[in-house]
Specification:
The chain has 3 domains: 137 residues, no CATH class; 183 residues, 2-Layer Sandwich (Pseudouridine synthase); 38 residues, no CATH class. It is 23% helix and 19% strand. It is built from 11 helices and 16 strands. A hairpin with a 5-residue loop joins strand 15 and strand 16. It starts with 24 loop residues before the first strand and ends in a 27-residue tail after the last strand. The relative contact order is 0.19. One of its GO terms (cellular component) is nucleus. One of its GO terms (molecular function) is RNA binding.
Amino acid sequence: MGTRYAATQLPTLARNTMAYLPCEGIFAIHKPPSITSAQVIRDCQSHFKSSTFFKPWLDREQARKDSESHNQRQKRRSWKQRQPLQVKIGHGGTLDPMATGVLVLGVGNGTKRLPDFIGCTKSYETVVLFGAATDSYDAVGKIIGRKGYEHVTREKVEKALENFRGQIMQRPPIFSALRVQGKRLYEYAREGKEVPVEIQERPVEVKSLEMVEWMEGGSHEYRWPEEEAEPEAKGVAEKVLHLESDGQGAKRKREEEVGNGDTESSKRTKASPESTTPPTNESKPTSSLEQALAPPTLPQAPQEPCPAPACRLRMSVTSGFYVRSLCHDLGAAVDSMGLMSTLVRSRQGEFSLGENVLEYVDLEKGEEVWGPKIQETLQEWQKREAARPADETEPADLGGRSERKQRPMKGHPRVESASPNKEKVFVPSSSLHDERGVNRSPSPSPSPTPEAKS
């Protein structure tokens, strides 16, 4: 038997807001590690398609498709459009596969409000590990350089952080989705090719940045990646990323880890069997931010602790900021190298972990668990949306049509009509044609005087 939902009277939506079904809007889910943001959407669609709560939306969309004309159906020829009907879901800003935390999702017409969350302020917690750098700036990449870390102290890092607050310039990592000459940066990196132009720095804003924990070498469980980049890839990376590696410690590191046959589950491999299997119970997230930041427990032989220091940072940043770049640049600022070991997005907009974010494990517990939680979140979001002033929002869609001022079609000049108060009102001439295209416009009127021109 499906879950029964209490009928809740939603407030009357303002004239400038979209008409939402109760199952449409914005909610957030706690993304677990080791899966992509796109996979989270597919998992949600898999649970939502047979649910009672989202049935009204699916019925409406199916009725709309059934009412399409023959010509409209002929246009629906792509493979994606021929797939079974799924709940329409999008996200408001992707998270790296290794990252966890708040992933904002839009359902139905709520997807039209996702740009508001892409550009909003976000809060993160990350762990920076010093002494090494990778091609992806994080712990799942390949080592491209090492540098001394014995001189790195808490005081030096605290002083270096002062230069990363406020309005700063930041160079995006080479493993990013930015395009250079029509090609994404990560495509250059994966092919081992040099970017044809230098990656330019971009202005970003760090509203707050603080160190919340300092970990001396040997006192933590964070580790450098085991895989070294190929010499050719190292050469390209050192040139693109302006690295100055001293090469010390590389041989010692290999000798320390020889004989350890097990590899980290987070390592980037093309033919890894772990990448095709769902995450185990140990990798599922919890509601605790501290547990989300903790390193994963791996069934492998005991290893020597990493001798380099690490620190945990908490920050609030604006859109376009790369936490990985901060970790990389912070290592260089203290005359060493650094990489991002963990990343948790703790807040995005009005959604915060532990408050109003759906836990990912609730999906497996069934609709009787996740259904009421999503319903409550969507209702609260719709109430806030209805209360927004008219000048703060402009709907992209209202019943399939926009309320923005209609522009005349190309080749159809504006036609003047007189109002009772003798003011000039311009009406698009396209509205003066009937359904067959016959011109129903009045006789030409004289050109407007200069005072009447808009």
